[in-house]
Every structure is written in C-alpha cells, then in structure tokens.
Specification:
It is built from 5 helices and no strands. The protein is mainly α. It has one domain. Helix 4 packs antiparallel against helix 5.
C-alpha cells in the first residue's frame, strides 16, 4: 500500500492560520471585536437607537461569538472541499472561497436575525442582521493563501 504524502502548502486565513500560528489569535480576536463594535456603534447611530450603551452591552458578545462561529463554518466548508473531495488548494480558487464567504455571511445573518436581535422589531432585526452579514463577512477568505508562503 502506497502512503499518500499530504503537504499543506497553503493555509486558510484566518481559521487555519490561527492553528498554524497561534500567536495570530492575539491580533484576530481583538481585531474582530473592534470591527464588530464599530459596526454596531455605527449601525445604532444610523438607525437612531436611543439607549446605545444598553443596546451595545446586550448584543456585542453574541454578535462577536456568532461572527467567529460563522468564520469557522466557512473555513470548515473549504477544508471539507479540499480534504474530503480533493478540490483545489484552499485560498487560491474562487470556486472554493466565494461559496465559503457566502456561507459565512448567511450564517452571520441567520444567527443575528434569529438569535441576537430576536427581541427587536422585524425592521431593525433585518437592518442589523444585514449590516453585520455584509460588513463583517470574512473577506479575508479571498486573499490567496499562496501570498502567505
């Protein structure tokens, strides 16, 4: 039986890069929190939310956690396609990265719409969930991993 050599020349940013370079967590985690906070603060200002401090405290941790979860789900899709179905090199093919980006964005929308903002009226729920899905989607998936080595 021949042993198949598997060489990982590419890394998937951000999730798989975080596994290979654990120190990156120190940049990615606070960076994601800052971006989520900015999107929430700007969205609250645009949508004229009256009690911004309470709204922020109530929602930011769920938004942050669901954003990370959505990134992991998109990363898992790419890993499954590469390892399970042997489709391409992760991070360099748009037919892998664009669906992963869309999957993550949809997950951000669904989790925020149905869980994070479930007590807000439907109009606000939709606007907040769309803002986070569009602005905080993991566009870094589109960075070719070949640029990293």
């Amino acid at each position: 039986m021949m042993k198949k050599d598997v060489k990982l020349y590419n890394v998937l940013f951000p999730f798989w890069m975080l596994l290979l370079f654990p120190q990156m967590w120190l940049i990615v985690l606070p960076g994601n929190f800052i971006i989520d906070s900015l999107v929430l603060l700007i969205s609250m200002a645009v949508l004229k939310i009256s009690d911004k401090k309470q709204w922020y405290k109530k929602h930011i941790l769920k938004i942050y956690a669901f954003g990370l979860l959505a990134d992991v789900i998109g990363s898992a899709y790419m890993l499954l396609m590469m390892v399970g179905f042997e489709l391409g090199r992760m991070g360099d093919e748009l037919y892998l990265t664009i669906p992963a980006l869309v999957i993550s964005a949809v997950m951000i929308f669904v989790l925020n719409y149905f869980i994070t903002f479930r007590k807000a009226d439907k109009g606000l729920r939709l606007k907040f969930a769309l803002a986070f899905a569009i602005v905080t989607a993991p566009y870094t998936f589109l960075i070719p991993s070949s640029w990293l080595y």
